[in-house]
Specification:
The chain contains five helices and 24 strands. The chain is α+β, with helices and mostly antiparallel strands. The protein is elongated.
């Protein structure tokens, strides 16, 4: 009897554990079943992807290139002094209009010591010669009156006196030129800078009291003012080597000046450089174009500007957005809707492109609906 009780207790424990395991497995199975059903239900309720479509359009396509540069006067002249010295007077200011021959500045000459000493010695010598010639003339005047001297000899003595007078005047004038740069009573001298052209004063880089150097064969000299004709402006810019071969002199350009909002200017291409310049690893070619400035408009020298030059254009052609294209090797395709949300791939032949729209020569019609690619055209329902 005592041996059967432990055996029965062991059987009961095993039976209880077995029941617990069966219940646990049933619960796990139910949880898995519920999760699977919920997943299938959620999947069945996912929104259906609908691809949007677009049609082509009749449009004008213009291919342009843009040249960057600035607006500058066609004629810009730097006025420089003909003598070295100090600017004692300025007669003009930036923005002022001047005519040819107008006074620009007055230069106070600082004479060369060697030249000044030579000129002073020349004056002294000429004065001594004149005094000696005068005394000789006076002595011989008495002899002529007493008939002790022939008229011919007296005329030679009188000529010597007159030549001595002329030499003194020339020496004095030379000394005055070295000291002052001009002669008293003269209109203008080397020490006066005058305008050689008509226009507007753009810049006055020196001030009164500044030292300046004359313009000569060995030195450009100091610029006193810069004068330009502001009624005749040009555009100077550069274009990339990939575009320069498509440019021709006489092309019409459209100028956009950054400093002037809402207004553009037209011009005509006048010059294309035959030689390019290396700028940061790319070859750039210089171009110049005239600028048509309308009434009431004023362009300042140095304005930065962009020149739009039309290279090619097509009018009223079938075009699509470039984002609708598919690329495979060297061929181009679009996906055309043949039934609701059913598409077929169709090869197209393209023409001119402006970067946004591209001309379609063959492959689709104006009414064909073209699939917008997934990155842009997914909607859900």
């Amino acid at each position: 009897m005592n041996n059967q009780a432990p055996i029965e207790q062991g059987l009961q424990r095993r039976t209880t554990i077995s029941r617990i395991l069966r219940w646990a497995m049933a619960v796990i199975f139910l949880i898995g079943l519920v999760y699977t059903l919920r997943y299938l239900y959620a999947k069945d309720q996912a929104p259906e992807v609908v691809f949007e479509t677009k049609t082509g359009q009749m449009s004008d396509i213009v291919k342009k290139t843009v040249a960057t540069g600035s607006i500058v006067p066609r004629q810009e002249v730097d006025l420089k002094p003909r003598v070295s010295g100090i600017v004692s007077k300025l007669y003009v200011a930036a923005g002022q209009m001047v005519r040819k021959g107008d006074k620009i500045a007055l230069i106070k000459i600082i004479p060369n010591v060697v030249q000044l000493n030579q000129a002073e010695n020349r004056v002294k010598t000429a004065r001594l010669n004149l005094d000696n010639a005068r005394m000789t003339l006076e002595r011989n005047q008495l002899l002529l009156e007493k008939k002790a001297l022939s008229p011919a000899d007296f005329e030679r003595i009188e000529l010597t006196y007159k030549l001595a007078q002329e030499e003194l005047q020339a020496a004095a004038a030379n000394l005055e030129l070295i000291q002052e740069g001009s002669l008293k009573g003269g209109s203008t001298g080397n020490n006066t800078v005058v305008s050689t052209v008509e226009g507007m004063v753009l810049d006055v880089p020196v001030k009164e009291g500044a030292s300046v150097i004359e313009s000569n064969n060995f030195n450009d000299g100091t610029t006193i003012v810069t004068v330009a004709n502001m009624d005749d402006m040009i555009f100077e810019g550069t274009v990339d080597e990939s575009e320069v071969g498509k440019l021709r002199e006489g092309m019409v350009i459209n100028l956009i000046v950054g400093a002037i909002d809402g207004e553009s200017f037209t011009g005509t291409l006048e010059y294309i450089s035959p030689k390019g310049q290396d700028e940061n690893g790319t070859i750039q070619f210089e171009i110049r174009a005239s600028v048509a400035v309308g009434q009431g408009s004023f362009l300042r020298a140095g304005y930065s500007a962009n020149a739009e030059i039309v290279l090619e254009q097509r009018s009223n052609v079938l075009a699509i957005e470039e984002s609708l294209l598919l690329f495979e090797m060297d061929k181009r395709y679009v996906e055309v809707e043949v039934a609701p949300q059913q598409f077929e791939k169709r090869e197209v032949v393209l023409g001119l492109s402006d970067g946004l729209l591209v001309e379609v020569l063959e492959g689709i019609t104006l009414t064909d609906r073209i699939k917008i690619q997934e990155a842009y055209g997914k909607t859900f329902k």
